[in-house]
Amino acid sequence: MSYRAAARPSRFALVADDYALTAGVSRSILELAELGRLSGTGAMTNRPYWPEGAQALREHEGRLDMGLHLNLTLGEPLGPMPVLCRSGSMPGFNPLARLAFAGRLPRGEVLAEVLRQVDAFAEAYGRLPDYIDGHQHAHVLPGVRAALLEAVALRWGGQAPPFLRDPFDTPGAIVARGVAPAKAAVIAALSAGWRRALDRAGIPRNEGFAGVSPFDPARDYADDFRRFLVAPGPAHLVMCHPGYPDAELARLDPVTDCRLIEHQFFASDKSIHAIEESRVELVRLTSISDQCSISEGIV
Protein backbone atom coordinates (compact mmCIF):
# COMPACT_ATOMS: atom_id res chain seq x y z
CA MET A 1 0.00 0.00 0.00
CA SER A 2 1.36 3.44 -0.92
CA TYR A 3 1.88 6.13 1.68
CA ARG A 4 -0.82 8.28 0.06
CA ALA A 5 -3.36 5.49 0.42
CA ALA A 6 -2.30 4.78 4.00
CA ALA A 7 -2.54 8.28 5.44
CA ARG A 8 -3.44 11.69 4.09
CA PRO A 9 -0.67 14.19 4.82
CA SER A 10 -1.85 17.08 6.94
CA ARG A 11 0.82 19.64 6.07
CA PHE A 12 2.10 21.40 2.98
CA ALA A 13 4.44 24.25 2.10
CA LEU A 14 3.63 27.15 -0.21
CA VAL A 15 6.55 29.00 -1.76
CA ALA A 16 6.51 32.09 -3.97
CA ASP A 17 9.00 31.98 -6.83
CA ASP A 18 10.78 34.88 -8.55
CA TYR A 19 11.51 37.24 -5.64
CA ALA A 20 13.60 40.16 -6.99
CA LEU A 21 12.56 39.52 -10.59
CA THR A 22 11.06 43.02 -10.53
CA ALA A 23 10.20 45.51 -7.83
CA GLY A 24 6.50 44.70 -8.24
CA VAL A 25 7.00 40.97 -7.79
CA SER A 26 9.05 41.55 -4.65
CA ARG A 27 6.48 43.95 -3.21
CA SER A 28 3.71 41.43 -3.73
CA ILE A 29 5.64 38.64 -2.02
CA LEU A 30 6.56 40.85 0.92
CA GLU A 31 2.91 41.81 1.42
CA LEU A 32 1.85 38.15 1.40
CA ALA A 33 4.66 37.27 3.80
CA GLU A 34 3.45 39.98 6.16
CA LEU A 35 -0.01 38.39 6.05
CA GLY A 36 1.47 34.99 6.90
CA ARG A 37 0.29 33.40 3.65
CA LEU A 38 3.62 31.88 2.54
CA SER A 39 6.08 29.25 3.75
CA GLY A 40 8.99 30.75 1.85
CA THR A 41 10.22 32.60 -1.20
CA GLY A 42 13.02 32.01 -3.67
CA ALA A 43 15.17 34.95 -4.78
CA MET A 44 16.76 35.58 -8.16
CA THR A 45 20.10 36.90 -6.97
CA ASN A 46 21.34 37.85 -10.43
CA ARG A 47 18.65 40.52 -10.65
CA PRO A 48 19.46 44.14 -9.70
CA TYR A 49 16.62 44.25 -7.15
CA TRP A 50 18.15 41.54 -4.98
CA PRO A 51 20.50 43.53 -2.69
CA GLU A 52 17.76 45.92 -1.60
CA GLY A 53 15.21 43.12 -1.55
CA ALA A 54 17.39 41.10 0.81
CA GLN A 55 17.16 43.84 3.42
CA ALA A 56 13.36 43.77 3.26
CA LEU A 57 13.29 39.98 3.59
CA ARG A 58 15.29 40.12 6.81
CA GLU A 59 12.21 41.45 8.58
CA HIS A 60 10.68 37.99 8.09
CA GLU A 61 13.66 36.00 9.36
CA GLY A 62 12.48 33.07 11.45
CA ARG A 63 8.97 33.16 9.98
CA LEU A 64 9.73 32.51 6.32
CA ASP A 65 12.15 30.16 4.59
CA MET A 66 14.53 32.15 2.40
CA GLY A 67 15.57 30.42 -0.79
CA LEU A 68 17.72 30.83 -3.87
CA HIS A 69 15.70 30.66 -7.09
CA LEU A 70 18.64 29.58 -9.25
CA ASN A 71 18.40 31.39 -12.56
CA LEU A 72 20.13 30.27 -15.74
CA THR A 73 17.49 31.39 -18.24
CA LEU A 74 16.70 35.09 -17.67
CA GLY A 75 18.72 38.27 -17.39
CA GLU A 76 22.49 38.49 -17.13
CA PRO A 77 24.87 36.17 -15.28
CA LEU A 78 26.81 37.46 -12.31
CA GLY A 79 30.11 36.65 -13.98
CA PRO A 80 31.61 35.74 -17.35
CA MET A 81 30.00 32.84 -19.21
CA PRO A 82 31.56 33.16 -22.68
CA VAL A 83 30.16 29.87 -24.00
CA LEU A 84 26.67 29.74 -22.53
CA CYS A 85 25.99 33.49 -22.59
CA ARG A 86 27.81 34.71 -25.68
CA SER A 87 25.43 37.63 -26.07
CA GLY A 88 25.89 38.63 -22.44
CA SER A 89 22.44 37.37 -21.46
CA MET A 90 21.22 34.01 -20.22
CA PRO A 91 19.84 31.65 -22.86
CA GLY A 92 16.16 30.86 -22.71
CA PHE A 93 15.01 27.54 -21.30
CA ASN A 94 14.80 25.74 -24.65
CA PRO A 95 18.38 26.51 -25.77
CA LEU A 96 19.65 25.59 -22.30
CA ALA A 97 17.73 22.30 -22.34
CA ARG A 98 19.00 21.40 -25.81
CA LEU A 99 22.59 21.88 -24.68
CA ALA A 100 21.92 19.96 -21.47
CA PHE A 101 20.44 16.90 -23.15
CA ALA A 102 23.14 16.94 -25.81
CA GLY A 103 25.79 16.86 -23.09
CA ARG A 104 27.21 20.17 -24.30
CA LEU A 105 26.74 22.40 -21.27
CA PRO A 106 29.97 24.11 -20.20
CA ARG A 107 30.15 22.45 -16.78
CA GLY A 108 32.75 24.82 -15.36
CA GLU A 109 30.76 27.89 -16.39
CA VAL A 110 27.54 26.52 -14.91
CA LEU A 111 29.19 25.57 -11.62
CA ALA A 112 30.86 28.98 -11.35
CA GLU A 113 27.54 30.78 -11.91
CA VAL A 114 25.71 28.59 -9.40
CA LEU A 115 28.38 29.43 -6.84
CA ARG A 116 28.16 33.14 -7.68
CA GLN A 117 24.40 33.14 -7.16
CA VAL A 118 24.73 31.27 -3.86
CA ASP A 119 27.42 33.73 -2.76
CA ALA A 120 25.30 36.71 -3.83
CA PHE A 121 22.50 35.41 -1.61
CA ALA A 122 24.82 35.02 1.37
CA GLU A 123 26.51 38.39 0.86
CA ALA A 124 23.25 40.35 0.72
CA TYR A 125 21.21 38.35 3.22
CA GLY A 126 23.96 37.49 5.67
CA ARG A 127 23.76 33.72 5.51
CA LEU A 128 23.28 30.82 3.11
CA PRO A 129 19.77 30.09 1.77
CA ASP A 130 17.40 27.65 3.45
CA TYR A 131 16.52 26.06 0.15
CA ILE A 132 17.31 26.10 -3.56
CA ASP A 133 15.06 25.60 -6.55
CA GLY A 134 15.33 26.73 -10.14
CA HIS A 135 13.70 29.25 -12.45
CA GLN A 136 11.71 27.20 -14.98
CA HIS A 137 12.96 24.12 -13.06
CA ALA A 138 16.28 24.34 -14.93
CA HIS A 139 18.07 23.06 -11.81
CA VAL A 140 17.05 19.48 -12.71
CA LEU A 141 18.49 19.52 -16.24
CA PRO A 142 21.42 17.17 -16.95
CA GLY A 143 24.65 18.92 -16.11
CA VAL A 144 22.92 21.63 -14.10
CA ARG A 145 21.84 19.18 -11.39
CA ALA A 146 25.40 17.88 -11.05
CA ALA A 147 26.75 21.43 -10.79
CA LEU A 148 24.15 22.27 -8.15
CA LEU A 149 25.02 19.24 -6.03
CA GLU A 150 28.71 20.12 -6.30
CA ALA A 151 27.99 23.71 -5.30
CA VAL A 152 26.06 22.53 -2.24
CA ALA A 153 28.98 20.31 -1.24
CA LEU A 154 31.44 23.19 -1.69
CA ARG A 155 29.50 25.91 0.10
CA TRP A 156 27.77 23.95 2.86
CA GLY A 157 30.59 21.53 3.61
CA GLY A 158 29.88 19.87 6.93
CA GLN A 159 26.82 22.05 7.62
CA ALA A 160 23.28 20.75 7.21
CA PRO A 161 22.52 21.05 3.48
CA PRO A 162 19.70 23.18 2.10
CA PHE A 163 16.33 21.80 1.05
CA LEU A 164 16.27 21.24 -2.74
CA ARG A 165 13.07 21.20 -4.78
CA ASP A 166 12.01 18.03 -6.59
CA PRO A 167 9.46 19.02 -9.27
CA PHE A 168 8.37 15.40 -9.78
CA ASP A 169 4.97 14.04 -8.97
CA THR A 170 3.23 10.82 -9.91
CA PRO A 171 1.08 10.55 -13.04
CA GLY A 172 -1.88 9.63 -10.84
CA ALA A 173 -1.57 12.78 -8.76
CA ILE A 174 -1.11 14.98 -11.83
CA VAL A 175 -4.21 13.55 -13.51
CA ALA A 176 -6.25 13.76 -10.29
CA ARG A 177 -5.57 17.50 -10.04
CA GLY A 178 -6.31 18.13 -13.69
CA VAL A 179 -4.48 21.47 -13.87
CA ALA A 180 -2.11 21.74 -16.85
CA PRO A 181 -1.52 17.96 -16.75
CA ALA A 182 0.60 17.82 -19.90
CA LYS A 183 2.88 20.59 -18.66
CA ALA A 184 3.16 19.02 -15.21
CA ALA A 185 4.00 15.65 -16.80
CA VAL A 186 6.82 17.19 -18.86
CA ILE A 187 8.28 18.82 -15.74
CA ALA A 188 8.01 15.51 -13.90
CA ALA A 189 9.80 13.73 -16.75
CA LEU A 190 12.63 16.27 -16.67
CA SER A 191 13.05 15.43 -12.98
CA ALA A 192 13.61 11.70 -13.49
CA GLY A 193 16.36 10.45 -11.18
CA TRP A 194 16.64 13.71 -9.25
CA ARG A 195 14.99 12.32 -6.12
CA ARG A 196 17.40 9.39 -6.00
CA ALA A 197 20.36 11.75 -6.42
CA LEU A 198 19.15 13.91 -3.54
CA ASP A 199 18.57 10.93 -1.29
CA ARG A 200 22.03 9.53 -2.05
CA ALA A 201 23.52 12.90 -1.10
CA GLY A 202 21.45 13.11 2.09
CA ILE A 203 19.76 16.32 0.96
CA PRO A 204 16.22 17.11 2.20
CA ARG A 205 13.52 17.52 -0.43
CA ASN A 206 9.79 17.47 -0.98
CA GLU A 207 7.76 14.47 -2.06
CA GLY A 208 4.69 15.72 -3.87
CA PHE A 209 4.71 18.81 -6.08
CA ALA A 210 1.96 21.06 -7.43
CA GLY A 211 1.37 24.58 -8.64
CA VAL A 212 2.10 23.97 -12.31
CA SER A 213 -0.24 26.37 -14.07
CA PRO A 214 -1.33 27.13 -17.63
CA PHE A 215 -1.09 30.84 -16.66
CA ASP A 216 -4.44 31.58 -18.24
CA PRO A 217 -6.05 34.70 -16.68
CA ALA A 218 -9.49 33.44 -17.72
CA ARG A 219 -9.22 30.47 -15.36
CA ASP A 220 -10.50 30.42 -11.78
CA TYR A 221 -7.27 30.42 -9.78
CA ALA A 222 -9.13 29.70 -6.54
CA ASP A 223 -10.35 26.44 -8.06
CA ASP A 224 -6.87 25.62 -9.39
CA PHE A 225 -5.34 26.17 -5.96
CA ARG A 226 -7.82 23.78 -4.36
CA ARG A 227 -6.81 21.23 -6.98
CA PHE A 228 -3.14 21.73 -6.11
CA LEU A 229 -4.01 20.32 -2.68
CA VAL A 230 -5.62 17.18 -4.15
CA ALA A 231 -3.62 13.93 -3.89
CA PRO A 232 -0.85 15.55 -1.85
CA GLY A 233 2.44 13.78 -1.35
CA PRO A 234 3.78 13.03 2.13
CA ALA A 235 5.94 16.15 1.93
CA HIS A 236 3.81 18.30 -0.34
CA LEU A 237 5.16 21.48 -1.93
CA VAL A 238 3.06 23.99 -3.87
CA MET A 239 4.67 26.81 -5.84
CA CYS A 240 3.01 30.11 -6.71
CA HIS A 241 3.90 33.21 -8.73
CA PRO A 242 2.27 36.32 -7.26
CA GLY A 243 3.25 39.80 -8.33
CA TYR A 244 2.25 43.30 -9.32
CA PRO A 245 2.66 43.59 -13.10
CA ASP A 246 4.36 46.56 -14.70
CA ALA A 247 6.15 47.44 -17.92
CA GLU A 248 9.40 45.84 -16.81
CA LEU A 249 7.70 42.56 -15.97
CA ALA A 250 5.96 42.56 -19.35
CA ARG A 251 9.35 43.02 -21.03
CA LEU A 252 10.97 40.18 -19.09
CA ASP A 253 8.28 37.56 -18.68
CA PRO A 254 5.08 36.50 -20.47
CA VAL A 255 3.31 35.86 -17.14
CA THR A 256 1.86 39.21 -16.03
CA ASP A 257 -1.89 39.35 -15.39
CA CYS A 258 -1.90 35.93 -13.73
CA ARG A 259 0.56 37.17 -11.13
CA LEU A 260 -1.87 39.83 -9.97
CA ILE A 261 -4.69 37.26 -9.88
CA GLU A 262 -2.57 35.01 -7.66
CA HIS A 263 -1.64 37.91 -5.40
CA GLN A 264 -5.25 38.92 -4.95
CA PHE A 265 -6.26 35.34 -4.15
CA PHE A 266 -3.56 34.78 -1.53
CA ALA A 267 -4.16 38.20 0.02
CA SER A 268 -7.85 37.39 0.47
CA ASP A 269 -9.67 35.11 2.88
CA LYS A 270 -10.39 32.80 -0.06
CA SER A 271 -6.94 31.26 0.31
CA ILE A 272 -7.49 30.64 4.02
CA HIS A 273 -10.84 28.99 3.33
CA ALA A 274 -9.36 26.82 0.56
CA ILE A 275 -6.68 25.52 2.92
CA GLU A 276 -9.17 24.88 5.70
CA GLU A 277 -11.56 23.08 3.36
CA SER A 278 -8.70 20.87 2.16
CA ARG A 279 -7.91 19.98 5.79
CA VAL A 280 -4.23 20.76 5.47
CA GLU A 281 -1.93 23.08 7.41
CA LEU A 282 0.48 25.60 5.91
CA VAL A 283 3.96 25.04 7.39
CA ARG A 284 7.63 25.82 6.75
CA LEU A 285 9.68 23.79 4.28
CA THR A 286 11.71 22.32 7.13
CA SER A 287 8.51 20.80 8.50
CA ILE A 288 7.59 19.02 5.28
CA SER A 289 11.15 17.73 4.81
CA ASP A 290 10.91 16.17 8.28
CA GLN A 291 7.63 14.60 7.18
CA CYS A 292 9.32 13.28 4.03
CA SER A 293 11.77 11.20 6.06
CA ILE A 294 8.99 8.87 7.20
CA SER A 295 8.24 7.96 3.59
CA GLU A 296 11.84 7.25 2.56
CA GLY A 297 12.02 4.74 -0.23
CA ILE A 298 8.48 5.36 -1.48
CA VAL A 299 8.23 6.92 -4.93
From TrEMBL:
Cofactor: Mg(2+)
Any Pfam family: YdjC
CDD domains listed in its UniProt record: YdjC_like_3 (cd10807)
BP GO terms, sorted: carbohydrate metabolic process
Spans through the membrane: none
An annotated Gene Ontology molecular function: metal ion binding
Highest rank taxon of the organism: Bacteria
Keywords: Carbohydrate metabolism, Hydrolase, Magnesium, Metal-binding
Protein name from the UniProt record: ChbG/HpnK family deacetylase
Organism field: Alsobacter soli
